[in-house]
Amino acid sequence: xxxxxYDYSRTMMMKILVANPDNKGGSKVFLxxxxxxxxxxxxxxxxxxxxxxxxLVGWQYLGHDDRYPEFFEVNRFAAGxxxxxxxxxxxxxxxxxxxxxxxxxxxxINFSDAYEESxxxxxxxxxxLIVKNSKGQPRVTGEWNSRKAYQVLFSxxxxxxxxxxxxxxxxxxLPFDEIKTLHADAFFVNPGKGVSIKKEKEYxxxxxxxxxxxxxxxxxxxxxxERAFGFRSQWGKSDIIGYIPAxxxxxxxxxxxxxxPPSLLAGGRLTKGLQWDMDLEKxxxxxxxxEDLFGKEDWENKFLKxxxxxxxxxxxxxxxERKKITGLFSNRVAHFSDGVKSYIKDEKITKNGEVLxxxxxxxxxxxxxxxxxxxxxxxxCSGTYNIGWDEAEIIPVGSGTFSGKVKTNNGSLTIPFxxxxxxxxxxx
Length: 428
Prior knowledge:
By secondary structure, this protein is α+β, with helices and mostly antiparallel strands. It has helices at residues 33-46, 76-79, 84-98, 121-126, 154-160, 162-171, 176-179, 197-213, 254-259, 280-284, 299-317; strands at 12-17, 19-21, 27-29, 52-57, 103-109, 113-114, 140-144, 147-151, 181-184, 217-220, 246-250, 266-270, 322-326, 333-336, 340-343, 349-351, 354-358, 361-365, 372-377, 381-386, 391-397, 404-407, 412-417, 421-427. The chain folds into two domains: 8-316, Glycosidases (TIM Barrel); 369-428, no CATH class. It is globular and about 75 Å long.
């Protein structure tokens, strides 16, 4: 198995959208770089310092999905600067500051798309680096920000040296020797006139390996399972599992979850509309994605709830070996090593019969901290848990007030949950 720079199975992976093109020659800024830093600070507080990778979306030119296949200039509108070079300096500052809050800040990019508005469009068209349709015209693969997107021809771009040229230019933009990770959006292989899907997939792997040789992991949006003639399948064989350590949107069968351990393929969430068996997420959980919350009204409380009920169990379960799944439909149980079980019914997690989580209430080891549990309930209630210590310190996370040093009853601790807030329970 390839060695990656991070253990993505024990790291939160999220995105923050900063800007879109406004289609008037400017940028619609959702979050400035200064505001991003404040979100990073708050997220670190709410996650009790859990390790995080955050990819910036819309960091370039006028925003998200702008100017590809170029990705060489930082969005000065989001940076709040006069020039692109000043914007780059502001982004370098943001990356450096984020590290103080257990956060690796990197970029969300796209290797597949090409736009007519790009400064590289004429050159790519002239050198036959764009996939064509049956009529010999550039093949449209989508429309984003009211602009048509076309598909880069991976094999020819790679062999001609153009891919290495733009990859090297990107790597020189920021300190990727320190960042060591990059997110490739929509890394699809698309069919076209004279295009061999098999060959394009081969060159997609070469593109990933090029960054790997430079010391940079590539994460991506999906598990890509293109078939020989360009048709996409939810269940076909993937050719890049083992090349990429994590994906944003998981499409997994029960067999997949047992076949691919999180150390080989992390996520991500199961995606509604793409995934038919959504109950699998109640067995294995996943990474909250952040971008649907950050900067929105009351995002902190919603973020804390998702972190507690999705990420904390995910990080915990990923420390055990997946053994088997028993039962059918909503009665299924996932069995892990060390007597750990996860149930669809009541969304329960147990270890050797002791309940760690049930529905919206939990007290689970915070595996990123030493001798610490993370406790949370989405409602006002009480719960008793065997933590095994004589004395513990309770530290509220969020708006909770229950705190201080407490004695246990032969290792059992009763927590008066206030509802909607979390607690760190640390061994004394």
